[in-house]
Amino acid sequence: MNGAETLVHTLIDGNVDVCFTNPGTSEMHFVAALDRIEGMRCVLGLHETVVTGAADGYYRIAGKPAATLLHLGPGLANGLANLHNARKARSGVVNIVGDHAVEHLKLDAPLTSDIDAIAGSMSHWVRSTPSVNEVAADGEEAIRQANARPGQISTLVLPANVAWTEVPERKGSSKDAPAAKAGHAPHDFDRIVNAMRNDPQPTLLLLGDQALRAASTELAGRVAAATGAEVRAEFYFARLERGAGRLVIPRIPYAIDPAMALLQRFKRIVLVNAKAPVAFFAYPDKPGRLTAPECEFLTLSTVEDDPCLALAELCEALGAGGAAPAGIALSGAHEPASGALTSETIGRTIAATLPENAIVVDEAVTTGWGFDGLTASAAPHDWLTGCGGSIGFALPTAVGAAIAAPGRRVLALEGDGSGMYSLQALWTMARENLDVTVLIFVNRAYSILRRELAAVGAGAPGARATDMLSLDRPDLDWSSLSKGMGVTAVRVSDAEALHVALARSYATSGPTLIEAIL
């Protein structure tokens, strides 16, 4: 058994049984090992950003890490944008990166690079395995790091000579490395209880990370019912369980002015696996922190804690355990929308058609800013956003989510500009026959950047600025692009046609792309 085979066995023994791949010459012994050894599902992506984004989506739904297989430093570098999103989402990922044989590194061949430096920019743990005798132990440690709480990015560099060298005797590997269990540290618990009992200041419960699962949000709703506190979610989150029968949790607005208008009225913010809200960017003459200067921040739980335990203890201390949660979304029929495609008609159509237990991956950017309220009472579903803001998130993440949850429909909401960063994910959807519906919003512009040009005070766009923010000459033909990747496509231009297209897609196995002309 060689080093590559040892590492594959170690991954499988550690419950890492999906590998998103884009290999090269240095990884061929690992590819051969994956071919010979049963137990690993291998999924090819045509660009490394698809590979890393799929690993992010997989973790968010499966709750355990997948592996990636990347080719040397340049291949890893191609995947860094979605590793950034995965890191901000606190997703666990085990990257396997091939490298030249150790002796060959001395020759400074064209693909030689400082892999450790590249990996270190987006990884919590990096290790280059120096010898075949350490492969199993290094693999086990990579898995342990990825399974930490919160999830982490681990990168294991496998030199080609280590991969092909025979192991005299394979060391035993750990079985089924589980995700780390969290408890609950006290933090500001007593101060929170005292304040919410005795000091009726306007209070916000701000939820993030694992606190946005249904079990935790229901408890937050009980606290809100008993105390009058308001409950909100961070604007970006890895996974929010929402829809009919679950708590309605509006997000803090993205734009700085409405965010400040909302947050300035709170005198106290209780952080539940969340961070103090700040502006996404710096703007001239506007603060980076969005809250009132006198606002008091109290921490109930951090991302290392179990928010469900923390909220349950808070409910008990406040006598809120028997309170009916405030703000549960009611189920009911949604009236079909009609007319032109706008944020409102699209949101209403999504709400009316979304299947129960669907997974929505949201990179709708400007078109989707109004979807929150419009879809709050849709059938129960999970909503995923791009936590790091790096463009090209939705399509790869939809791949990983679909592989993590076979039988659940995935709806990817994508802008035409953002989609071009990772459209190769469509090919993987077709090849794996994934139940993904891709809804592309075609406005032929980087619309958010047009807004930002004004928001930062840079003035009205002239001809050259407009040209840099427009997607025309030629127009992108998403239906043709999709068909070229093997995914059936349909073009719609009104709400009635969108309703029909969504319903047909949900009723059909495999992927579909809907090109919505705005």
TrEMBL record:
Family: Belongs to the TPP enzyme family.
Keyword Transcription regulation carried by entry: no
Domain of life: Bacteria
Protein name: Acetolactate synthase large subunit
Species annotation: Variovorax rhizosphaerae
Thiamine pyrophosphate enzyme N-terminal TPP-binding domain mapped to chain residues: 1-106
Limits of the Thiamine pyrophosphate enzyme TPP-binding domain: 378-515
SUPFAM superfamilies assigned to the protein according to its UniProt record, in alphabetical order: Thiamin diphosphate-binding fold (THDP-binding) (SSF52518)
Keyword Acetylation tagged: no
Keyword set, alphabetical order: Thiamine pyrophosphate
